[in-house]
Design brief:
Blueprint lengths: L11 E2 L6 E7 L2 E7 L5 E4 L1 E4 L10 E5 L2 E6 L4 E8 L4 E9 L6 E7 L2 E8 L4 E7 L6 E8 L6 E3 L2 E2 L2 E8 L4 E7 L6 E8 L6 E4 L4 E6 L4 E7 L6 E8 L6 E7 L2 E8 L4 E7 L6 E8 L6 E7 L2 E11 L2 E9 L6 E9 L3 E4 L3 E3 L2 E9 L4 E11 L2 E4 L4 E7 L14 E5 L4 E6 L6 H4 L1 E8 L5 E7 L1
Parallel strand pairs: 3-30
Antiparallel strand pairs: 1-31, 2-3, 4-5, 6-7, 7-8, 8-9, 10-11, 11-12, 12-13, 14-16, 15-16, 16-17, 17-18, 19-20, 20-21, 21-22, 23-24, 24-25, 25-26, 27-28, 28-29, 29-30, 31-33, 32-33, 33-34, 34-35, 34-38, 36-37, 36-39, 39-40
């Protein structure tokens, strides 16, 4: 299909994942596994439904206010969702293909608005995005080429003003930036060469930073000085090694840090002592392995951790845990595997009393391409038969049956509606997801009507 073809592009996807419930009581963890329907809204002129926010491969996560920002570095896909733990779970609201290769994200709020700091280590690009009201998109407020190689970020707040803690593991350089949203978007107010090799940073209270080094288990807690002019190390302790994921949250009795080790699934929950003078381990439990992304959200008197795992091109999993009172365990309130199923429609394309719609259904292993054709008769739209041709291309390699169904493909059919193509046994969904599909139908008056699905 030529990219110069003129058509109407309206993308709509409804992803429905089977619903099931299971209950499991383990130690102090109550598990309520709910396989839920996942509805995703995308914007292509107008907001439409899409499945991309649940698909595998996301590598960057950040929380800002009630919103969770998810990012896939390979293609720049951004998804914005909102936590709704007891009604619909994690609700994806918006998706957009932005720029690729960004490596670090941290969220902050300021003057009633929610923002995301995005950083690309390879070239030092910093972008600051404001999340739109309701999570329906984002506005890029600042874009600036800064320094390269930074690997750890946190967003402390001093008297309501947001700052960014930036750390480079190779030489231990710490920078503290004051957010301004003017010019580059920030002003560097402090720079200092500290210790090297630290791997994770999260907040340990509004103006405290938890730093962790996986190689030797060292934990430090720093208090950010007034106006961001440096930091004071309040605590230094050799704890356990190999932890890979952290999230911060607040309960009525103070700040907490969730720590996770991917290789054995160990979860610990720590309460931060007054004045950042240490931490008290409130919970220790071996959960599930291989999770790679975590976001902490505090709302009212409740706190949650969203956990994400991807194990392959067609396998991802989202869990939501509610932190129990005083950090004494967690309750898993949602558990949703994703198998890369989706449906896309072109929407009705109308011409002189005749209309057609192209429909694609992908269930994770096979693709069905079908269409509908209708004519306007006495004021009603009625199904009719029409001759149609179909063409399409996938963005990735096809399975071994490629000689039978080449990429790109062209097909013809004598009647519509009918299922025309049934591609089987795909080893990955991404070839199907990122494709272009066109239908050309012959109208009763001899005209040609074209419907397209492109993503």
């Amino acid at each position: 299909m030529s990219t110069s073809d003129v058509g109407i592009l309206i993308t709509s996807v409804l992803v429905v994942i089977f619903v099931s419930r299971c209950h499991k009581q383990v130690a102090r963890v109550t598990t309520a596994c709910v396989f839920l329907a996942f509805f995703v809204l995308a914007e292509t002129g107008a907001a439409q439904q899409t499945s991309a926010c649940g698909s595998p491969g996301f590598s960057g996560f950040a929380t800002s206010g009630p919103y969770v920002w998810s990012y896939r570095a390979s293609d720049g896909m951004v998804c914005i969702g909102q936590l709704d733990p007891f009604v619909a779970g994690f609700v994806p609201i918006y998706q957009y293909k932005w720029d690729h290769g960004f490596s670090s994200f941290v969220g902050f709020s300021w003057a009633g608005a929610n923002y995301i700091w995005a950083y690309r280590a390879s070239d030092g690009i910093v972008a600051i995005h404001q999340i739109k009201s309701g999570g329906n998109g984002f506005i890029q407020k600042n874009f600036y080429k800064w320094d390269t190689g930074y690997s750890g970020f946190a967003a402390p707040s001093l008297n309501g003003v947001p700052y960014i803690w930036a750390y480079r593991a190779g030489d231990g350089l710490v920078c503290i930036h004051k957010i301004t949203l003017v010019g580059p978007g920030f002003t560097t107010v402090f720079q200092y060469k500290w210790d090297t090799g630290f791997s994770s940073f999260v907040l340990a209270g509004a103006d405290y930073v938890w730093a962790y080094r996986a190689s030797d288990g060292l934990v430090t807690i720093h208090h950010i000085n007034n106006l961001g002019n440096g930091f004071t190390q309040k605590y230094y302790y050799k704890w356990d090694t190999g932890f890979s994921g952290f999230a911060s949250m607040n309960l009525p009795d103070g700040a907490y840090v969730w720590a996770y080790r991917a290789r054995d699934g160990l979860v610990t929950i720590h309460q931060i002592n007054s004045g950042g003078s240490g931490f008290t381990q409130k919970y220790y439990y071996k959960w599930d392995t291989d999770f790679s992304g975590f976001s902490g959200i505090s709302t009212g008197s409740n706190a949650y951790v969203l956990a994400y795992r991807t194990r392959g091109p067609r396998d991802s999993l989202i869990c939501i845990h509610q932190i129990n009172s005083s950090g004494k365990g967690f309750t898993q309130v949602f558990y949703k595997p994703y198998y890369c199923s989706w449906q896309r429609r072109s929407g009705w394309v109308t011409q002189n009393g005749f209309r057609v719609e192209l429909i694609l259904d992908y269930d994770g292993s096979s693709l069905n391409i079908s269409s509908k054709s209708q004519s306007r008769i006495f004021g009603f739209w009625l199904d009719v038969t029409s001759t149609a041709s179909y063409s399409g291309s996938f963005s990735g390699p096809l399975p071994p049956w490629q000689p039978i169904y080449p990429n790109p493909f062209t097909l013809s059919a004598s009647s519509v509606p009918a299922y025309l193509v049934h591609f089987n046994d795909f080893s990955t969904c991404f070839a199907m997801e990122h494709g272009k599909y066109t239908m050309e139908a012959l109208s009763p008056n001899g005209g040609v009507v074209e419907a397209k699905v492109e993503w």
